[in-house]
User: Which sequence fits this backbone?
C-alpha cells in the first residue's frame, strides 16, 4: 500500500516562510518513477493545483498565483517531496496535499494517491 | 486557464435513487495521445479526496460499480445508479490536459 505523509504545516505571519514535506512510504512503489504534485484546499476556493515536479526534479510547473514564491523539490533517495513557501499571504491559507501525479505506468495526471494533508494558516 | 463547471452544486438524493453530476470544461480535454484526462474524485467528510474514475470512465480498484462516468470533449457526467449512505460527500471533476490543472467547484451530495 502506498502512503503519502505530509508535515510542516502551522501558523505563520504574512510575509513569512514555511517548508512542507511529504514522505512516501510504500512497498512496490518506486517514488522516482512518478511526477508529484501539491494541491491545496480552502472552503471558499475548493481544490487548487499548486504545482508539480518531474521524476528527476528537472521539470517544474506552478500555478501563476505562487510563481516566484513557492518552490517544489524532491529527494528521490529519501522518497521525499518538499514545498518551500516564501512571501506567504493570507490567501495561501489552506490544507496542502501531496499527490502522486503521473508516471509511465500510471498515466498522465493520475492523482491516484493523496496524503492526509497539512494545514497552513497565514495570519498575524 | 481551463474552467471546469460542475452542476448542480448541491444534490439531495433519496437513498436507493440515482444521482447525476455534470462537469463541463471550457476547452476540449482530449490530449495529444488521444486520451481524455477527466478525473472524478470523492471527498467524504473529514477525509482527503479519493480518485473514483480516471480518463472519464476507468473505475478505480475498490470503487463500487454503481459509479460510472461518461462523456467526451467538453461534456462529462458522473452517475451513481443507487445512492447509498456512504456516498455522502463532495464530488469534484478535474482536468489533466492543460496547465494549470483545474478542478470543478464541487458537488455536495447529501441524503434527503
Assistant:
Amino acid at each position: 500500500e502506498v502512503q503519502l505523509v505530509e508535515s510542516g504545516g502551522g501558523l505563520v505571519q504574512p510575509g513569512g516562510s514555511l517548508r512542507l514535506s511529504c514522505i512516501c512510504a510504500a512497498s512496490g512503489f518506486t517514488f522516482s518513477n512518478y511526477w508529484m504534485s501539491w494541491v491545496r484546499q480552502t472552503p471558499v476556493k475548493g481544490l487548487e493545483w499548486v504545482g508539480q515536479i518531474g521524476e528527476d526534479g528537472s521539470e517544474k510547473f506552478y500555478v501563476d498565483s505562487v510563481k516566484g514564491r513557492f518552490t517544489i523539490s524532491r529527494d528521490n533517495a529519501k522518497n521525499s517531496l518538499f514545498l518551500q513557501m516564501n512571501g506567504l499571504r493570507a490567501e495561501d491559507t489552506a490544507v496542502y496535499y501531496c499527490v502522486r501525479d503521473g508516471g509511465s505506468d500510471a498515466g498522465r495526471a493520475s492523482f491516484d494517491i493523496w496524503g492526509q494533508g497539512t494545514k497552513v494558516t497565514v495570519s498575524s | 486557464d481551463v474552467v471546469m463547471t460542475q452542476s448542480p452544486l448541491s444534490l439531495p438524493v433519496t437513498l436507493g435513487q440515482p444521482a447525476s453530476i455534470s462537469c463541463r470544461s471550457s476547452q476540449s480535454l482530449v490530449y495529444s495521445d488521444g486520451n481524455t484526462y477527466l478525473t472524478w474524485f470523492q471527498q467524504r467528510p473529514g477525509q482527503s479526496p479519493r480518485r473514483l474514475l480516471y480518463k472519464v470512465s476507468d473505475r478505480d480498484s475498490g470503487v463500487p460499480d454503481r459509479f460510472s462516468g461518461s462523456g467526451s470533449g467538453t461534456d462529462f457526467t458522473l452517475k451513481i445508479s443507487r445512492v447509498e449512505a456512504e456516498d455522502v460527500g463532495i464530488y469534484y471533476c478535474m482536468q489533466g490536459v492543460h496547465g494549470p490543472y483545474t478542478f470543478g467547484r464541487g458537488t455536495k451530495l447529501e441524503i434527503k
